[in-house]
Structure of Torsin family 2 member A:
Amino acid sequence: MFCILFVLFLFIYHPVCGVFQKLYCSLSESCECDFKPNIKDLEWDLYKNVYGQHLAQDIVSEEVSKFLNNKSPDRPLVLSFHGSSGTGKTLVSSMLGNHLYGSAMSSPYIHQFFVRTKHPSLCLQEELKNWVQGNLTECARSVFIFDEMEKMPSGLVDVLEPFLGPSHVVFRTNYRKAIYIFISTTGEEVINKVTLENRQAGQDREEIKSADLQEAIAQTAYSNSTSGFFLSSIIPQKLITRFVPFLPLSRRHVERCVHSELCQRGSCGRSDVVEAVGGDMIYTPVQGQYFSTTGCKAVPAKINFFL
Ligand SMILES: *[C@@H]1O[C@H](CO)[C@@H](O)[C@H](O)[C@H]1NC(C)=O
Ligand SMILES: *[C@@H]1O[C@H](CO)[C@@H](O)[C@H](O)[C@H]1NC(C)=O
């Protein structure tokens, strides 16, 4: 017995023994692919390196730790990220990948899906279904990231419905251990409006509550024909665990992005560049100039210009 354990131990920890690991995984319930979640590191990264997004920080840490601490979740974790471009949606999705798997975002169990066609086809639906099902059969602890949902043809996402619900077990696979992340700009109008009203009322940004936005984002996703979830039963069935709003960034946040990027390039001390890039962004609305229209998106390019 000891000998077998020892041999298995070698198989699991020896990277060249991928084939044996696969064999072991198919025989064992306990082996979870490359899954090595570090929730503390994820939280630290979220709170230290994402600027101006208290809702995303709180919701993502809370939901991920709740989900991973549950040994047999009754449904997968489904998060939908919403907000204007440059507010940190992609950044947060990579942080998740980075702290869940041994090989970070290059893990073979993190899958990113981009669709750039507006023409839904049965073929595409079948492909998407097989892709999710096939990968879940290989590894129940898979992460699926659907970026730019607003470019996804309406109706396509519906093939995911059976995977997102509570009761699916196919083959030996437990579908309920997967994590799905949807990313889109849908709902940016309502998120930006709530943030603007908060600012104009002179309140703290942190006073904006997640509950203030959940229903509004769900409604927009359901009723806007370019959301990727247009008239999808995924919304009324409440298969999305939480909507994660990303708020528009003010100059102070943009400057933190600039500072952090400069530090990564070894030029931490260049406050002149921080100031110049911060001053070079476009801010809305005209009255007040509160929020950067492009968030932190153009920061690296502008640094190249001013450095
Ligand atoms: C799993 O996903 C990868 C891309 O992430 C894809 O290339 C592969 O075909 C998928 N596997 C199955 C069995 O569908
Ligand atoms: C749907 O969303 C797009 C992109 O966010 C927006 O431009 C458009 O005004 C929205 N349509 C409606 C009817 O709200």
Strands lie at 77-83, 110-113, 143-146, 169-170, 173-174, 179-184, 242-246, 283-284, 291-292. Residues 251-306 form one domain. Residues 111, 130-131, 134-135 surround 2-acetamido-2-deoxy-beta-D-glucopyranose (ligand 1) (CB under 6 Å).
